[in-house]
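Schema walk-through. Below, the input block comes first and the output block second. Nothing else is stored per chain. Lengths vary across the set, and this one has 505 residues.
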Amino acid sequence: MKTWITASAALMAMAVGLAVSPAWAEGSGTFKYAEQVKLITMDPQKQSGSGVPFLRPAYESLFEKGPNGENLPLLATGYKVDGLDVTITLRQGVSFSNGEPFNAEAAAKNINRGVELGITEGLKTVESASAADEFTLKIKLKEQDPAIIDSLCYTGGMMIAPAAMSDPALDRNPVGTGPYVHSKEESREGEVQVYTPNPTYWDKDKIGLARYEVWEIPDDTARLNALKTGQIDAGNWLANPQSAIIDRTAGLKLIRGTGGLNYHVIISDREGTVIPAFADINVRKAMAHAIDRTAFGKAVQFGLAVDSYQPYGQGHWAYDAGLEGVYAYDLEKARAFMAKSKFPDGFSFDMPSIPIYQSRLEALAGFFKEIGITMNIAPQEPGTLARVSRTTAYPATNLVWNTITDPKFLALRYIYENAAYNPFKTKPSEELLSLAKQGLESVEVDVRAPIYKKMAAQLADEAFLIFVASSPILIGASEKTASNPTVVYRYGEDSINLRGLKAND
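--- output ---
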């Protein structure tokens, strides 16, 4: 089995560089960030959708993404992967905010709890974890996973204090190693979550604030007004009218972050358990051809998106230019596919929606109506779409895929019989299953890229994932915030790196 070590001397040097940077003065001032989704849980191992900005102040992961997407040690100091065996060395001198020591035993409890809960996609390939010694963590994989360290950069690698794991109030009482602690007394449910400096933080020089706030403002217009009036310093947006307004308003700035949000429709019931028409490949191809992506991008996403026909964006190592336009808008072709199907007269189905996706679904409903398909939009509470989409409550759903995500997650989310967004437990085609397994057999991008290109082509052929449009991660901020050199957005995320963050002058 191949062995590789990616906590190289260069990466370790970067980590050391963080430690020797000039110390900040004692934290002062307040920074206010706005989320567009409602807070569901502060338990990172139960977090299944958006809302990571609520977690980042209190929790740290074993690794984090560097500015170019490289894996950097954080609570870890290095790692080695040998086939199914992962060995991770841990940072010493770290404690949780409740005083418990952070060590390999604590880390193993976290990984094993995440595996047992089965919600965190990044841990799906993990068999178990154990402590080899006080600061050496061992992870046993079920199958080779070239992206396991990537997974440990996010919620899969976030560390909860062991004593807090059994606390029924964990969803509102986060206990981690992060630079800040949650202030329950100052927080207001459904409005704002407040964080103050962690007195036990292992790198106090990186605490630059006296207070950090995450506001819960699902309404786009209300969030924009909060930004204009200074109620918030920054917040995240989709490609929508408000983001376009930010882009052309003096004193405000629309920041285009790394990665992209690839909006897509998922035919969950692709064996026709509830909606028989969805089992018909002609119907699915008709739907894919019925979407005028260019019009969608202009009217619904205000020119802040590009047409999408595959999971990956240009620049990704698995992107296949040959798939562009594979389902180009062609109403005549769409109607021909419907005529060839067993459902030429059309059918109806229900699609869940949250407020931030409402305009998108209204546009899609109009496109589908042109070929005799009625899509009824079923409103859901903000922040609940990911959870609803994991159930059989609806035969189809709509989500976003982050285009920097490792392609292995296509299988973990959509393809495997036990995939997160395969609630009807549809058995994957032999072609998709074979490609998914092949993609895990090597760590070399040059080997993996052609495999995942074939997977994207096969997904297009089966048409149960219909990609619509992709936009960059968009963050609206004041000019003062945008020019603040300590404001660093995490690679591929809409959350801010809180280490060293200072309030605007």
